[in-house]
């Protein structure tokens, strides 16, 4: 399996040769999907949700720019409960997917609206075990639910989108129980914000943030909420 650190260098050379560096040629679809017909009921002042959609750098960045999100942490979910590291997960043998745990204020943004962002701009839910140049089960599309209500809302929303045929192919997103979430290493946190000139970020992730701003301005926040800023006064 090719690590992103190796792939980024090769990608920069290729994009430079093609004359498209930074143009967003590999940007995901940009379309505002309809909101879920049924949404989750908030029962606490803060709620959490976990989403996987390819490399966690871009998924984290999108949610960090989403109104009402209090924190978005890159990590690993869906696999071995004993632990997770980037090297181990990158092997594709742990069962984990690169994921993002989103803590949000349900008075500002609902679980259904987060699903709307996730399916609209954060990734392509119709590609199996692949997003952009990244392939393997660790890059699968998945919603990890914490309770029966999140499961119900996610499954019904996928059914709603498939029935409306908003994508050219059927959604392959896995809906699975959240059994464990391991935060990723510190150097993965806030990666898109800290490395905006990285060829990988410029090509595959910054366009997602731009799409959020363009297609869902009511849910967009210009200043991202960063993991590095958590716990500071």
Description:
This protein has 233 residues and is α+β, with helices and mostly antiparallel strands. The chain has one domain: Peptide Methionine Sulfoxide Reductase, Chain A. Helices cover 34% and strands 17% of the residues. It has 7 helices and 8 strands. The protein has helices spanning 4-18, 56-64, 86-90, 111-122, 148-164, 191-194, 199-215; strands at residues 47-53, 69-77, 97-104, 130-131, 134-135, 141-145, 174-177, 181-183. The protein has a 6-stranded mixed sheet with strand order 7-6-1-3-2-8. Helix 5 (148-164) links the parallel strand 6 (141-145) and strand 7 (174-177). Helix 2 crosses helix 4, helix 2 (56-64) packs parallel to helix 7 (199-215) and helix 4 (111-122) packs across helix 7. It is globular and about 40 Å long. 42% of the residues are buried. The model is unreliable at 5-28 (pLDDT under 50).
Assigned CATH architecture:
2-Layer Sandwich
The computed structural class is alpha+beta
* Strand percent estimate: 15-25%
In whole angstroms, the N-to-C terminal distance is 41 Å
Stretches with pLDDT under 50, minimum 5 residues: 5-28
Oligomer: single chain
Number of distinct helices: 7
**Global mean pLDDT:** 89
Radius of gyration: 17 Å
- CATH overall fold name: Peptide Methionine Sulfoxide Reductase, Chain A
């Amino acid at each position: 399996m090719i690590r992103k650190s190796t792939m980024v260098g090769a990608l920069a050379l290729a994009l430079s040769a093609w004359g498209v560096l930074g143009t967003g040629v590999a940007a995901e679809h940009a379309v505002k999907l309809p909101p879920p017909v049924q949404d989750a009921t908030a029962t606490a002042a803060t709620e959490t949700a976990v989403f996987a959609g390819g490399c966690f750098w871009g998924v984290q960045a999108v949610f960090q720019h989403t109104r009402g999100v209090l924190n978005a942490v890159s990590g690993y979910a869906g696999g071995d409960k004993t632990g997770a590291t980037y090297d181990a997960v990158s092997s594709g043998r742990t069962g984990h997917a690169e994921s993002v745990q989103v803590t949000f204020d349900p008075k500002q943004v609902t679980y259904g609206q987060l699903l709307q962002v996730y399916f609209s701009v954060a990734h392509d839910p119709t590609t199996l075990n692949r997003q952009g140049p990244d392939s393997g089960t660790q890059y699968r599309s998945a919603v990890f639910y914490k309770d029966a209500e999140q499961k119900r809302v996610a499954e019904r929303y996928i059914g709603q989108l498939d029935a409306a045929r908003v994508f050219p192919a059927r959604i392959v997103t896995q809906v699975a129980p959240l059994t464990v979430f391991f935060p990723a290493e510190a150097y993965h946190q806030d990666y898109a914000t800290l490395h905006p000139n990285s060829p990988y970020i410029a090509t595959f992730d910054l366009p997602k943030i731009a799409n959020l701003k363009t297609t869902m301005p009511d849910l967009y926040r210009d200043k991202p909420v960063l993991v590095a800023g958590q716990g500071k006064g």
